Amino acid sequence: xGDMAVPxxxxxxxxxxxxxxxxxxxxxxxxxxxAQLAQHSPPFKLEEDKPYSEFWMGxxxxxxxxxxxxxxxxxxxxxxxxxxxxxxxxxxxxxxGKLPFLFKVLSVNKALSIQAHPNKxxxxxxxxxxxxxxxxxxxxxxxxIALTPFEGLCGFRPLTEIQKxxxxxxxFAEVIGQDAANALASGSDSLALKKAFAALMTSNPDxxxxxxxxxxxxxxxxxxxxxDISDQCGDLVLRLNSQFPGDVxxxxxYFLNHIVLQPGEAMFxxxxxxxxxxxxxxxxxxxxxDNVVRxxxxxxxxxxxxxxxxxxxxxxxxxxxxxxxxxxxxxPYVTIYDPxxxxxxxxxxxxxxxxxxxxxxxxxxxxxxxxxSGSGCIENTANTIPATRGTVLFIPANTSFDFKxxxxxxxxxxxxxxx
Length: 419
Fold this sequence. Notes:
eight-stranded antiparallel β-sheet, disordered N terminus
């Protein structure tokens, strides 16, 4: 596998077989959207007690997609190398002949680490200084679009909310210390916030553990006596501690917005924005990179100093951290998520039962489409491609084709790059 180019059909659309990742934080068995979608690919064998966390669509070497339909399967990266025109001239030139994005489905059962991603220049420095940790020099902007209610932490809360927690959660105030608490109470600038967050993240682990145990005991007592603990994010603290006992990340929720996205809502995670995924299923699209700076809710390496130094200490509401989408003016069935990066954008295509034949528009760059619900077929390729839930298509630049629907509502997500 890997050295043979698959001939491009008359429309050029090809079907992909995609990689499944089984990290411990994934949803178990068929509770996972990843497992549900992966069942479309014949080699996939479901194990009911196994976590299924990520479905990767792209060329990343840790989970490369393969192209179906030739004499033998070929890595998508090799197929693109042999058919560079599928990228279109501008993408080919801008991204050195490589597919610039990785498209994923995530199914999250247990919190992922509190983290941020460096910008491109910072990524280059980190990779040069510590290549064993920061594996490449690329930035890693990413976007999550909810498939089910999807829960995460994203961006710093409004300062008034953080100040309220300092006053109402004494264990939180104790961990950040009197100096940082005073700076937060009197200051409204980012320096006060940075001082307080850094004080939390660098505090003595024994103090964190001691204060967290006190907080948990107080919350459990309050809850058992029938009191509401939501004003102190009590249920979230209890849940995160059950997943990561004694972890400093349990206190981070008092700094960061707790957001629950409804299906179709999105978060864009640009450089230096603190965030963590907590629960649910989502589509995710990102630049091709592994650069993550972690500091909590993780057994992995924590680079607290780098994280505290790089973060954007800008406060915002939950609503301000939900990324706006907009209807495509040229297609009534398409919603566009267009982040401020060149590497990718995403289209959500919702085809109603009343539309028996849908035309995929040609784009000047490559795209990958995943069928989330419904079924149909692509008829104007060299070979007809039947499509069901879990079918993944690679669509070359400047390629349009008809999708014949099978008389039911159909939902498709399409990641693309147009520069």
